[in-house]
């Protein structure tokens, strides 16, 4: 069942040395394209990185060398208003895409496309991992991939034959994210401590990389300092100016 496949997801960071063929990649991408897209704009593109030197450099810039060099396929999942610019120019008009709404539309489109691609890959027995590290050194990565104005990498996506499968990490309980009619933050007082205990037990019992951290501790350490503070300026240089 599709639902069981979705609930079995765990990130894979160690792949066998088996590259996906063009036929396999085109099948996965073709399936991914049937994701929903805002107003049918399809504001995304994928750069499939096959050149070994580019993969090495991408691994260096994204701080994910093992992923980028060892996966069966490496994709840069990109927001893209450049193709839309060409489409509009065919009709004698021009567009601007410097509003926050344009950014939100493109990022949402990329997310839906990427998740469809991931699900298609996992249905074939492959493992996948999202790589947010491509937002490190974004301008250098954009140059490496030849991305024009209007295009930027939202994240990487690696696909391949897993060397081993990781245990599925417990998610927040449904009641933590499902609110009926009105947002209820009072329930977090009981749900979050219970979830911390669940996560502690998971980390303590899994087969490798055992640790004692709770979820709230991890989120505190992650969110108490800013990340990629230059990103707004980098996106503005790509044409996304948050107007």
Automatic annotation (TrEMBL):
<dbReference type="InterPro" id="IPR000415">
    <property type="entry name" value="Nitroreductase-like"/>
</dbReference>
<protein>
    <submittedName>
        <fullName>Oxygen-insensitive NADPH nitroreductase</fullName>
    </submittedName>
</protein>
<dbReference type="InterPro" id="IPR016446">
    <property type="entry name" value="Flavin_OxRdtase_Frp"/>
</dbReference>
<keyword id="KW-0521">NADP</keyword>
<dbReference type="InterPro" id="IPR029479">
    <property type="entry name" value="Nitroreductase"/>
</dbReference>
<keyword id="KW-0560">Oxidoreductase</keyword>
<keyword id="KW-0288">FMN</keyword>
<comment type="similarity">
    <text>Belongs to the flavin oxidoreductase frp family.</text>
</comment>
<keyword id="KW-0285">Flavoprotein</keyword>
<feature type="domain" description="Nitroreductase">
    <location>
        <begin position="7"/>
        <end position="160"/>
    </location>
</feature>
<dbReference type="Pfam" id="PF00881">
    <property type="entry name" value="Nitroreductase"/>
</dbReference>
């Amino acid at each position: 069942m599709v639902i069981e496949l979705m609930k079995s997801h765990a990130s894979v960071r160690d792949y066998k040395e088996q590259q996906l063929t063009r036929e396999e990649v085109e099948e996965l991408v073709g399936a991914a394209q049937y994701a929903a897209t805002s107003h049918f704009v399809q504001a995304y593109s994928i750069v499939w990185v096959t050149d070994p030197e580019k993969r090495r450099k991408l691994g260096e810039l994204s701080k994910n060398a093992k992923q980028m060099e060892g996966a069966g396929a490496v994709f840069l999942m990109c927001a893209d208003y450049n193709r839309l610019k060409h489409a509009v120019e065919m009709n004698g008009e021009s567009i601007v895409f410097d509003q926050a709404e344009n950014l939100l539309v493109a990022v949402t489109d990329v997310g839906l496309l990427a998740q469809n691609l991931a699900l298609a890959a996992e249905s074939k027995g492959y493992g996948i991992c999202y790589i947010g590290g491509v937002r490190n050194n974004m301008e250098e990565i954009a140059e490496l991939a030849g991305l024009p104005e209007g295009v930027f990498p939202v994240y990487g996506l690696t696909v391949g034959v897993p060397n081993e499968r990781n245990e599925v990490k417990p998610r927040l309980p449904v009641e933590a994210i499902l609110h009926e009619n009105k947002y209820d933050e009072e329930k977090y007082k009981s749900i979050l401590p219970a979830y911390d205990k669940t996560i502690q037990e998971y980390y303590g019992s899994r087969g490798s990389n055992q640790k004692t951290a709770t979820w709230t501790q991890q989120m505190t350490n992650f969110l108490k300092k800013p990340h990629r503070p230059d990103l707004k300026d980098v996106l503005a240089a790509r044409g996304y100016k948050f107007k």
